[in-house]
């Protein structure tokens, strides 16, 4: 599974139609260890810039990441 | 290239108009511009329409001739330009190019959007289509969330504070309160702006522009013919359009917009002026952080200083560089496809000393910056009095 560092993040309260039922939820742009950046969903504990995160599962082509255990 | 002038302007009020459709708004703005320029419809030689999502918002496509024929403009080229929130800035760029190149003399550019017939969640969904739908938007992003992530990183790298963002909203609402055509004519306090309903952290409702209906129009002609139509022509001194990645996560540094810097550099060079010579500006404040980054990328302040510069009042009507005397997208409103041309109309109003209570004393050289998406398109225009 992919892992990386949080480059930036936000918690979304006002969601588009397709995601309205899931709000609030956190998204982040992650700088991947393998190189490049990707926009992902964060599950579990909220993260901040600089946190290490790891992919839990890809769902419909979207990465779901969680904070890496210290 | 021939020097080009704006010879007429026209705008509808911006707001939520239940009884108005897309075409009636566009026609109202176009007819006002024709009247303002003393031009008949049969004198228009080419027509451009800036519109982002008429097909999604209003269920109508083939919009350019749909609007131009309703204005009595028949037979001539009629072209729609889509570039997200920069649609009508881009339409203006292409209309300008046609006149500058000598292809046609009298060209009309209209921008329009009819947004309020849909729910906010549906509007967010349609706006999201201006992002990367296979990537960032699939993860649940909204445009507010993209600019929220930009704000977070700008805060992290430069120490920009929530108060700095709020000060932009307070200033733009103060200006919009004096604009009879503004959507939300309401002054707000810093405390209110700090405590609005959360949208996407750190942005709240007061950091976000409005969902509006509206249209704006300008008519262009070669400068050498401008006085046939008006005593107050406004010259297009410099203009450029630039582009960048659609997906925010493809950009090396999200605290700056390369398309803004590229468009600005070319526009300044064409106009033969420096950023410091600009006397006032209409800036694309789709979100408060966007205004702060724009004044950095346009060279008005150094990178990272946009927040404190705004917070200290320098961009107020009475400051050294008045920004968004119209109220900006924040208070005037943001009917997406109308915004680029509306900014030019607002510059022209100041330059003709027709801006009423919000008139600024230095108004001979103005700049408009129109941004599409999270920075994938930018149009920068520099106008001057003749």
Structural overview:
The complex is a heterodimer of chains A (70) and B (386). Chain A has a 5-stranded mixed β-barrel. Chain A is globular. Helices cover 0% and strands 54% of the residues of chain A. The mean pLDDT of chain A is 95. Chain A is built from no helices and 5 strands. By secondary structure, chain A is mainly beta. Chain B is an alpha/beta fold and 386 residues long. In chain B, the strands form 2 sheets. Chain B has a 9-stranded mixed sheet with strand order 3-2-4-7-1-8-11-10-9. A two-stranded antiparallel sheet of chain B has the order 5-6. In chain B, helix 7 crosses helix 10 (288-297).
Topology:
The complex is a heterodimer of chains A (70) and B (386).
Chain A: E1 3-12, E2 25-32, E3 37-42, E4 52-59, E5 62-67
Parallel strand pairs in A: 3-5
Antiparallel strand pairs in A: 1-2, 1-4, 2-3, 4-5
Chain B: E1 4-11, H1 22-37, E2 46-50, H2 54-58, H3 63-68, E3 78-81, H4 87-100, E4 107-113, H5 120-128, H6 143-158, H7 162-176, H8 190-194, E5 198-200, E6 203-204, E7 214-222, E8 234-243, H9 258-271, E9 280-282, H10 288-297, H11 306-311, H12 328-331, H13 339-351, E10 365-372, E11 377-385
Parallel strand pairs in B: 2-3, 2-4, 9-10
Antiparallel strand pairs in B: 1-7, 1-8, 4-7, 5-6, 8-11, 10-11
Helix pairs in contact in B: 7-10
């Amino acid at each position: 599974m992919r892992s990386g560092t949080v480059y930036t993040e936000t918690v979304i309260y006002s969601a588009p139609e397709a995601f309205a039922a899931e709000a609030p939820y956190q998204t982040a742009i992650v700088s991947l260890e393998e190189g490049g950046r990707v926009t992902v969903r964060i599950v579990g504990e909220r993260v901040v810039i600089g946190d290490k995160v790891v992919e839990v599962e890809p769902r419909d082509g979207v990465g779901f990441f969680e904070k890496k255990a210290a | 290239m021939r020097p080009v002038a704006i010879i007429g302007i026209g705008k509808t009020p911006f707001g939520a108009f239940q009884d108005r459709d897309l075409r009636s708004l566009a026609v109202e703005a176009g007819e006002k511009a024709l009247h303002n320029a003393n031009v008949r419809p049969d004198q228009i030689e080419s027509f451009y329409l800036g519109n982002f999502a008429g097909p999604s918002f209003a269920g109508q496509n083939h919009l350019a001739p749909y609007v131009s024929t309703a204005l009595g403009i028949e037979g001539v080229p009629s072209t729609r330009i889509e570039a997200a929130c920069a649609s009508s800035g881009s339409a203006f760029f292409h209309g300008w190019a046609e006149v500058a190149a000598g292809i046609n003399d009298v060209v009309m550019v209209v921008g329009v959007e009819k947004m309020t017939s849909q729910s906010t969640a549906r509007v967010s969904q349609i706006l999201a289509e201006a992002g990367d739908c296979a990537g960032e938007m699939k993860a649940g992003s909204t445009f507010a969330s993209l600019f929220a992530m930009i704000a977070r990183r700008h805060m992290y790298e430069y120490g920009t504070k929530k108060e700095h963002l709020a000060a932009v909203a307070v200033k733009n609402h103060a200006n919009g309160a004096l604009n009879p055509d503004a959507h939300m004519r309401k002054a707000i306090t810093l405390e209110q702006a700090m405590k609005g309903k959360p949208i996407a952290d750190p942005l709240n409702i007061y950091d976000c522009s409005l969902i509006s209906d509206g249209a704006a129009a300008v008519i262009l002609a070669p400068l050498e013919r401008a006085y046939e139509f008006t005593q107050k022509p406004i010259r297009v001194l410099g203009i450029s359009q630039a582009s960048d990645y659609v997906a925010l996560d493809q950009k090396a540094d999200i605290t700056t917009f390369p398309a803004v810097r590229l468009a600005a550099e070319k526009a300044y060079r064409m106009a033969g002026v420096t950023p410091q010579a600009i006397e006032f500006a209409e800036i694309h404040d789709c979100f408060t952080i966007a205004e702060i980054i724009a004044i950095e990328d346009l060279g008005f302040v150094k990178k990272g200083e946009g927040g404190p510069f705004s917070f200290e009042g320098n961009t107020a009507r009475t400051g050294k560089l008045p920004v968004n005397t119209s109220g900006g997208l924040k208070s005037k409103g943001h009917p997406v496809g109308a915004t680029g041309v509306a900014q030019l109309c607002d510059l022209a109003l100041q330059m003709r000393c027709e801006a009423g209570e919000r008139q600024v004393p230095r108004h001979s050289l103005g700049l408009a910056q129109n941004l599409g998406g999270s920075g994938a398109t930018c149009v920068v225009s520099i106008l001057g009095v003749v």
